[in-house]
């Protein structure tokens, strides 16, 4: 035969697109349309029609609508226009299959990325959403009034298309201050149509068969059978009467669709899905509406009888749905109970899995799991992060301790160079915990169930021959929308079809159960899942990253001191305040979503994030101050809710962005409602100040924590609190971890004073422990720390470097390797050298392009580290700013601080995998070491780093450490990172990581100080008040907070610790004021399987347990009752004794 395959394919395709699809519906009549364009002062122009913020349906229902003809121009960017749709259905058609066909003016692609709408009944019931690939609205007899009139309301959102066919173009529409105000859409179609079911079904049959013919190999007998059979059957279609001949043609095609799949074909578990980004190319405000629209679509399918199973991640989205559309939420809850909607993931949002702290990742799971359990009665069974930009090696243990033993992602398929070798595997974390893992081989979380995607899933599966089961996620995502009826129908047609993988609807849990049984000895991947792409997200939107770091620290401070005060009877259970802290955590967790924290969203998202994180910080500072005041004064504290209000979402103004002066400084003072002043100091990184804030109530002032009895004094004293899990020296006094100390007035560290001097054009700083020399440009040419000069011969340490930063795509996301070719040193000028009682410092000014920077090198008395503060006024575009720190260390690998531990990465480029890991994440610190010596760098919020090896004169190598400070991409936020920034670093010496880790905690968790009035008396009572509630030896205490109480029970104290060095240790826990220590899971529930075995020692209030390398443990304790209190202990039960002004403290 001489059949031409391309001609046959084109023949089928044209009949499908130009005859079958148009003939599937018949227009009955046009719909009468009226509109109400919301108007308010949004954007640069007030009173723009359609630019108003969303309003509830009840308000829209009462609005005055203006009749209009179509086409109608409508909708400025981010606006809302309500349409009232009315049509009288002819009586003869009222029992037929009828629908509305709507076109709001969208392009025929990118559902979820442009205008979309939600259709509601006059009673406010969400009927369905519409988007470019889902235009239909059901018309059923129950929706008609007595005379057959249909009335519906359409909330239309004019969201701009920012990621168009030509992507990554800078846009002004991502910020409210610069967005446009002219209409950007044209409403063209609102028709009542009759559906020809046989034609629709025929089109669906041909769609599947055409896809099969296209994707099978050209020499496939099955492919030719399908191609010829489909073409010949369509030749029997009456093109002049498609509805009349459709059934006959379907009968001719039926044998082609009835050939079963081969018995050994791959089995796909199809799961409906709608990955909705909590913010991205739209603000959080719009995400809330996307959730409602998507779930309305899902409910439409399920309530119409579709056999789909839908996976529902992100508890935050359900919380919004519960608040914004309770009617929809109630219907979702019914489908969850029926097993048709399955909550997955267990997290509050789908977070970035690299940048958040370990405690933040833990809270993602505890908060999310609690919401799913309490509000939906559901338990998730897998970690579900299909779109995060790499995955920390700490995640397997965190997931396991939260009760999750399965993990799903597909993002590693985005690797630029190296192809991941497995799709089903065991992923082993830094501590050895393994979690069963699956990467859906279709390489997408939003498939359309096309033949190409199905075939790719089968052919691409790396574990063929060893496993035959894989997961297949379908439904429009990112901007939402979810599965369509066409997708579900394709799943039905390919369920058992020769040439296609066998496909059936399933739940994620069913899939993982089957996959584990089939492939229990799957290969093991050890360590992080590094994504060879999107490396720039470690740096972009640096102000938000620093605000997140500070919010994490502020939450830790608030929980630590509120728990301590509660355990000592100074806070009632209802004053803890658990609900408020949950709210603060959930706000922070939302800001850690994988397109917010990484820096890849529009400007509007960062206006919101900085405002929300700023409120979290302020609220926590107020909560901390109240608790610390209660501890010092002994006066029971309440927690008025009006301290600072924070919601899980917001728009509007708040904390200023970095371009306006950055996030609240750690040195800032927040006056809480009781008048206590709190001053935070950045230990070591900034020369301390002597400012104090007096307490307003004249509470007695302590002097020496070691004093045997009351000691009056005429000088002002300060009480200092230390939230860090390591001790620190303040003004000559050692402050214990999670405890406090008294600072005598005028107290200074007794260590040798600092010195500083000019040396020609350069300078020299020192304190007897650290000595450094700077040249005329302000670069460090010699740094003696831990007894050795760490600067390589001839190198310059602490130099800013600038490079072009114009990646091939994904501007805010990607840092491509060729930036290195344009790197150049920026020459500075040594400006000032100064020494005083606070320490020695040298200031360096650097000017470049339209930007400028000031570097301040500083030493404090008794400090064993060199501190660096970098202030940058950044106005570059498409550039990257690096800080070069060359160290004279021959290192084969380096240690990078991570969640609950650290990981090591090679410094060489032996393999492609090594070479393309050229930009990596470090949390609070990194350490480069050789036998007997090493150098560590701690930071205040810098996550992107690169290390390279260089030959050393005389033999060996030295290591170049570079911090990525700032980027300046133009998409999606054309002003990303522009403005003022402040970054702090501490350089330490030492062979092991412990020194730099301790320095990082001190940098990350500044002390708080309370100034006490002069003339007060102090005594041993204050020493007890400032003693740590909990002390740990052999591990790092990472979190101290209260568990949510069970009904009728008192709250319990949760202590979370981790082993930091990769060693097996026996840990000792000291908590004499607490009792009943037991091992618990991550949620704080006692657990024999997930918790450690806690054993009491011979000393009351002291327990021990074993931790494996990098192991995490949660210990649950309760407050001692009055009967358990020892006579020697301070009062722990009952009303506290009031300590009056002038009395003994």
TrEMBL record:
The keyword Metal-binding applies. Keywords: Glycosidase, Hydrolase, Metal-binding. One of its GO terms (molecular function) is alpha-mannosidase activity. Gene3D superfamilies: Glycoside hydrolase 38, N terminal domain, Glycoside hydrolase family 38, central domain, Golgi alpha-mannosidase II, domain 4. Residues 1121-1135 have a biased composition (Basic and acidic residues). CDD domains: GH38N_AMII_ER_cytosolic (cd10789). GO terms for biological process: mannose metabolic process; oligosaccharide catabolic process. Residues 532-613 form the Glycoside hydrolase family 38 central domain. SMART domains: Alpha-mann_mid (SM00872). It comes from Actinomyces respiraculi. Residues 643-716, 1121-1145 are annotated as: Disordered. Pfam families: Alpha-mann_mid, Ams1-like_1st, Glyco_hydro_38C, Glyco_hydro_38N. It comes from the Bacteria. InterPro entries: Ams1-like_N, Gal_mutarotase_sf_dom, Glyco_hydro/deAcase_b/a-brl, Glyco_hydro_38_C, Glyco_hydro_38_cen, Glyco_hydro_38_cen_sf, Glyco_hydro_38_N, Glyco_hydro_38_N_sf. Belongs to the glycosyl hydrolase 38 family. This is Alpha-mannosidase.
């Amino acid at each position: 035969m001489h059949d031409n395959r391309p001609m046959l394919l084109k023949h089928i395709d044209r009949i499908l697109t130009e005859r079958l699809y148009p003939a599937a519906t018949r227009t009955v009549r046009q719909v009468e349309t009226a509109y109400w364009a919301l108007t308010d002062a949004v954007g640069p122009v007030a009173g723009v029609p359609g630019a108003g913020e969303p309003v509830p349906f009840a308000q829209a229902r009462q609005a005055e609508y203006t009749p209009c003809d179509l086409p109608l121009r409508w909708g400025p960017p981010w606006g809302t226009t309500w349409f009232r749709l009315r049509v009288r259905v002819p009586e003869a058609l009222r029992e037929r299959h009828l629908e509305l066909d709507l076109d709001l003016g969208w392009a025929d692609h990118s559902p979820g990325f442009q205008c979309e709408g939600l259709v509601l009944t006059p009673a406010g019931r969400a009927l369905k959403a519409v988007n470019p690939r889902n235009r239909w609205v059901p018309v059923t007899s129950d929706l008609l009034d007595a005379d057959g009139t249909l009335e519906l309301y359409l909330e239309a959102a004019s969201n701009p298309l920012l990621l168009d066919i030509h992507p990554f173009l800078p846009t002004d529409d991502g910020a409210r201050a610069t967005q446009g105000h002219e209409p950007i859409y044209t409403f063209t179609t609102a028709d009542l149509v009759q559906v020809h079911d046989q034609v629709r079904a025929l089109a669906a049959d041909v769609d599947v068969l055409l896809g099969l013919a296209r994707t099978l190999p050209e020499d496939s007998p099955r492919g030719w059978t399908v191609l010829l059979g489909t073409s010949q059957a369509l030749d029997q279609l009456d093109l002049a009467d498609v509805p009349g001949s459709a059934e006959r043609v379907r009968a001719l095609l039926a044998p082609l669709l009835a050939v079963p799949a081969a018995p050994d074909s791959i089995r796909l578990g199809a799961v409906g899905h709608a990955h909705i980004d909590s913010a991205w190319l739209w603000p959080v405000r719009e995400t809330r509406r996307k959730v409602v629209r998507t779930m309305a679509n899902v409910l439409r399918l399920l309530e119409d009888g579709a056999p789909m199973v839908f996976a529902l991640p992100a508890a935050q989205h359900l919380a919004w749905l519960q608040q914004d559309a309770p009617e929809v939420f109630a219907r979702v809850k019914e489908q969850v109970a029926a097993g048709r909607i399955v909550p997955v993931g267990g997290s509050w949002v789908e977070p970035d899995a690299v940048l958040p702290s370990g405690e933040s990742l833990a809270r993602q799971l505890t908060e999310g799991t609690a919401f799913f359990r309490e509000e939906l009665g559901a338990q998730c069974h897998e970690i579900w992060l299909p779109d995060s930009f790499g995955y920390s090696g700490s995640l397997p243990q965190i997931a396991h301790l939260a009760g999750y033993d399965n993990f799903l992602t597909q993002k590693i398929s985005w690797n630029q160079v190296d192809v991941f070798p497995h799709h089903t595997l065991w992923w082993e974390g830094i501590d050895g915990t393994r979690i069963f893992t699956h990467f859906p081989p279709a390489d997408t979380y939003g498939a359309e169930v096309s033949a190409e995607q199905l075939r790719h899933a089968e052919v691409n599966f790396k574990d063929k021959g060893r496993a035959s089961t894989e997961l297949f996620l379908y439904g429009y995502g990112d901007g939402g929308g979810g599965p369509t009826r066409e997708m579900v129908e394709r799943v039905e047609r390919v369920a058992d079809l020769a040439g296609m993988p066998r496909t059936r609807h399933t739940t994620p849990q069913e899939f993982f159960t089957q996959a584990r049984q089939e492939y229990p000895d799957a290969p093991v991947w050890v360590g992080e899942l590094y994504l060879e792409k999107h490396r720039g997200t470690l740096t972009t939107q640096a102000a938000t990253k620093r605000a997140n770091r500070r919010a994490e620290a502020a939450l830790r401070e608030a929980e630590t001191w509120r728990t301590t005060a509660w355990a000592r009877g100074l806070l009632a259970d209802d004053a803890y305040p658990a609900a408020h802290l949950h709210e603060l955590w959930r706000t922070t967790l939302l800001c850690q979503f994988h397109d917010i924290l990484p820096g890849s969203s529009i400007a509007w998202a960062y206006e919101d994030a900085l405002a929300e994180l700023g409120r979290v910080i302020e609220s926590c500072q107020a909560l901390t101050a109240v608790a610390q005041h209660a501890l010092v004064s002994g006066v029971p504290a309440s927690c008025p809710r009006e301290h600072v209000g924070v919601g899980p979402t917001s728009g509007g103004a708040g904390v200023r962005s970095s371009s306006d002066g950055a996030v609240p400084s750690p040195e800032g003072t927040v006056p809480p409602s009781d008048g206590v002043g709190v001053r935070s100091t950045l230990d070591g990184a900034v020369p301390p100040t002597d400012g104090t804030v007096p307490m307003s109530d004249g509470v007695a002032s302590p002097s020496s924590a070691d004093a045997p009895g009351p000691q009056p004094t005429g000088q002002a004293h300060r009480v200092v609190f230390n939230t860090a899990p390591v001790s620190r020296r303040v003004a000559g006094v050692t402050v214990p971890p999670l405890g406090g100390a008294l600072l005598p007035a005028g107290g200074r560290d007794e260590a040798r004073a600092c010195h500083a001097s000019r040396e020609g054009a350069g300078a020299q700083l020192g304190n007897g422990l650290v000595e450094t020399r700077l040249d005329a440009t302000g670069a460090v040419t010699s740094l003696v720390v831990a007894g050795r000069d760490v600067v390589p011969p001839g190198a310059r340490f602490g130099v800013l470097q600038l490079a072009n930063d114009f990646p091939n795509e994904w501007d805010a996301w990607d840092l491509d390797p060729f930036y290195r070719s344009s790197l150049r040193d920026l020459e500075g000028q040594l400006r000032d050298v100064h020494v005083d009682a606070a320490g020695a410092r040298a200031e360096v000014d650097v000017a470049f392009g339209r930007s400028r920077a000031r570097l301040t090198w500083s030493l404090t008395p008794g400090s064993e580290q060199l501190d660096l503060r970098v202030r940058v006024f950044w106005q570059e575009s498409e550039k990257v700013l690096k800080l070069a720190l060359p160290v004279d260390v021959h290192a084969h690998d380096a240690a990078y601080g991570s969640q609950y531990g650290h990981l090591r990465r090679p410094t060489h480029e032996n393999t492609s995998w090594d070479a393309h890991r050229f930009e990596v994440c470090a949390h609070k610190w990194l350490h480069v070491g050789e036998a007997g010596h090493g150098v560590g760098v701690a930071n205040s919020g810098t996550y992107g780093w690169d290390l390279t090896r260089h030959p050393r004169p005389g033999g060996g190598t030295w290591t170049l450490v570079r911090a990525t400070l700032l980027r300046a991409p133009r998409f999606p936020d054309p002003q990303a990172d522009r403005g003022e920034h402040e970054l702090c670093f501490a350089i330490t010496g030492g062979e092991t990581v412990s020194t730099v880790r301790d320095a990082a905690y001190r940098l990350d968790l500044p002390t708080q100080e309370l100034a006490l009035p002069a003339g007060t008396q102090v005594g041993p009572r204050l020493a007890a008040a400032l003693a740590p509630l909990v002390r740990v030896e052999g591990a790092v205490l990472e979190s101290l907070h209260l568990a949510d109480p069970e009904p009728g029970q008192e709250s319990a104290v949760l202590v979370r610790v981790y082993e930091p060095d990769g060693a097996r240790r026996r840990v000792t826990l000291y908590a004499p004021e607490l009792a009943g220590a037991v091992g618990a899971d991550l949620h704080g529930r006692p657990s024999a399987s997930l918790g450690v075995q806690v054993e009491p020692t011979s000393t009351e209030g002291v327990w021990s347990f074993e931790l494996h390398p990098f192991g995490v443990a949660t210990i649950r304790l309760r407050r001692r009752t009055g009967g358990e209190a020892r006579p020697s202990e301070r009062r722990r039960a009952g009303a506290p004794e009031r300590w009056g002004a002038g009395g003994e403290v």
